[in-house]
Amino acid sequence: MFRIGIGNDTHRLVAGRPLILGGVLIESDRGADGHSDADALSHALADAILGALCEGDLGVHFPDSDSQWKDADSLQLLARVCWLARERGYQVVNADATVMLERPKLRDYIAAMRETLAKTLQVDTGCISVKAKTGEGLDAVGRGEAVTVQAVVLLEQS
């Protein structure tokens, strides 16, 4: 049996915060604002897995009202969601994500993101796709005010 989940996450970009995507520190003068480390890529993937499991979203499992998740490493949150999937009898088959960010350009970071996410999701790197797009100057992404990620994940019953 297979299940598909879709995830989406957006964070405002602000000065004084690191920009972390897929567990990789991106060289940037602004980073994503959030309760945890605000890794929008890891958050979107976690939401996709939770959606496939019909287990709510990231905020249900790691609420921003709970101080234990303040500045949390989002790869650890993603790993916990993967553990939940395995507990429910599912494993990740593959994942595809699109990161929408006006700047900086992400081409040089994509391979590291794929490797880091593959380790966390316990799949081969060839099962993880990460693409980067700009907002072409439109909306909050295009104006350089935000990062948005869309992700889809396929789970298989183990």
Describe the structure.
This protein has 158 residues and is an alpha+beta fold. It has helices at 40-53, 58-61, 74-87, 110-121, 139-142; strands spanning 2-15, 19-21, 24-26, 30-32, 90-100, 128-133, 146-157. The protein has one domain (2-157): 60s Ribosomal Protein L30, Chain: A (2-Layer Sandwich), CATH 3.30.1330.50. Helix 1 (40-53) packs parallel to helix 3.
Comma- or semicolon-separated keywords:
158 residues; alpha+beta; 60s Ribosomal Protein L30, Chain: A; 5-stranded mixed beta sheet; two-stranded antiparallel ribbon; 7 strands; 30% helix
In short:
The chain has 158 residues and is an alpha+beta fold.
Walk me through the topology:
Elements: E1 2-15, E2 19-21, E3 24-26, E4 30-32, H1 40-53, H2 58-61, H3 74-87, E5 90-100, H4 110-121, E6 128-133, H5 139-142, E7 146-157
Parallel strand pairs: 5-6
Antiparallel strand pairs: 1-4, 1-7, 2-3, 5-7
> Low-confidence stretches at least 5 residues in length (pLDDT < 50)?
none
C-alpha termini separation: 9 Å
Mean model confidence by pLDDT: 96
| Radius of gyration from CA coordinates | 15 Å
CATH architecture field: 2-Layer Sandwich
What is the domain total for the residues? Answer: 1
**Order of helices and strands, N to C?**
EEEEHHHEHEHE
- Per DSSP E runs of 2 or more residues, the count of β-strands stands at 7
Main sheet record? 5 strands, mixed
CATH superfamily: 2-C-methyl-D-erythritol 2,4-cyclodiphosphate synthase
